[in-house]
Amino acid sequence: MNSTPAPQFAVVGLAVSDLAASIAFYRRLGLAFPDGAEQEPHVEAVLPGGLRLALDPDSTIRSFHPDWRPPAGGGRTALAFRCADPAQVDAVYEDLVGAGYHGELKPWDAFWGQRYAVMHDPDGNGVDLFAPLPDAAA
Fold it and tell me: Which CATH number describes the domain made up of 77-138?
């Protein structure tokens, strides 16, 4: 029997084209990055539960891997932020769109029982906003 523990999921990493723009977007969603992070070659924010979101500028990645190129085409990565209630989904969506970020799908009541909306961060990654809908039976 192997007594070595399995690797633990710990970090979601995003390659970003504009670190300052990405930090501004995720700060608007409540993530805390250190002051001056915009000038760093790699930054992380600790998420609830201990996971971390790491942002690496394309230029930093290329400095270690000169042949690396950013992915072309649509992103296949999405992050999801749980809101306190359906009204907060609407409010956060409107705040981000009002700040100039791309709203992919306006808030709607999804058949799976959540208020849901989809944004794009500055690099086109999907960022979902959701909250449980009030129980219709209650």
Answer: 3.10.180.10
Rounded to an integer, what distance in angstroms lies between the CA atom of residue 33 and that of residue 61? 20
The token pair that represents 59 in the structure block: 């230029």
Model pLDDT for residues 33-62, shown as the tens digit of each residue = 999 999 999 999 999 889 999 998 888 877
As a CATH number, domain 9-66 is: 3.10.180.10
Give CA–CA dist 42/110, Å, rounded.
36
Residue 109, strand partner residues: 115
Residue 91 in tokens:
């409010």
Q: CA 60, CA 70: separation in Å to the nearest integer?
A: 12
Pairing assessment for the beta strands 78-82 and 102-110 based on DSSP bridges = unpaired
pTM score: 0.83
Report the length, in residues, of the chain: 138
